[in-house]
Amino acid sequence: AAYVLLEAEAEAVAGEDPARAAGMLTQAGVALVAHGTVEKLAALTQRAMRLAGPGADLAPAVLHASALASLGDHARARRLLAGREAALADLDATAPGHELLSVVALCHVYMEDYEQAERSLVALVETCRARGAVGPLALPLSVLATLQLRRGFWTEAGMLADEAAALGEEAIGLFTYTLALAAGKLADVTAGEAVHAE
Which helix H or strand E contains 74, and what residues bound it? Predict the structure, then answer.
């Protein structure tokens, strides 16, 4: 429902206020991450990037790179992210917009750039812990748990996911809470299957 409303309103103002339309389409893209197809996310965020214009398209570009990485178009995803390295470096790990840094790391997980993803995520987690930033800590913890699942480090993945989930849905939001719970459950099941196989 949020996606449908945001897309419709964005299209209604796109001719008069493209920057505002780009912002609404980006928020619609966030809604699609939790409920929608990756192909639709790719199309939506590409339109948001065009409306925002160069230099103002960081958020839709990161979401677009995430969609491209999910679809296997790694070359285009890497180019998008490489072109925005300076803007990403200016983001604060605990300030509004911090989520983009975890999404970039998730892109690297999708593209199997595991070392780069781990470096970014560990730095984010350490910064959030040092500053006592509870809310911003949850997403990098959850993405790091996802990375460790892919690498076969089930115990560590489970601990990271449990730490994120323990912060509570109210503190970290439904999407991140669900991601943490899913990673934790998958870590438990996979670890159990590995022990049973032995």
Answer: helix 74-82
The full DSSP string for 22-47 is: HHHHHHHHHHHHHSS-HHHHHHHHHH
Taking the alpha carbons of 97, 102, 103, 108 in that order, is the dihedral positive or negative?
Answer: positive
Helices of type H across 90-133: 99-110, 114-131
Q: pTM for this structure?
A: 0.90
Using alpha carbons, list the distances in angstroms from residue 49 to 18, 35, 56, 193: 10, 21, 8, 44
Q: Which of 106, 168, 174, 167 is nearest to 140 (CA)?
A: 106
**Angle between helix 38-52 and 58-71 (nearest 10):** 150
**Tens of pLDDT, residues 93-151:** 999 999 999 999 999 999 999 999 999 999 999 999 999 998 899 999 999 999 999 99
Determine if residue 96 is left, alpha or beta; phi over 0 gives left, psi from -120 to 50 gives alpha, anything else beta.
Answer: beta
Tokens read off for 19: 């920057």
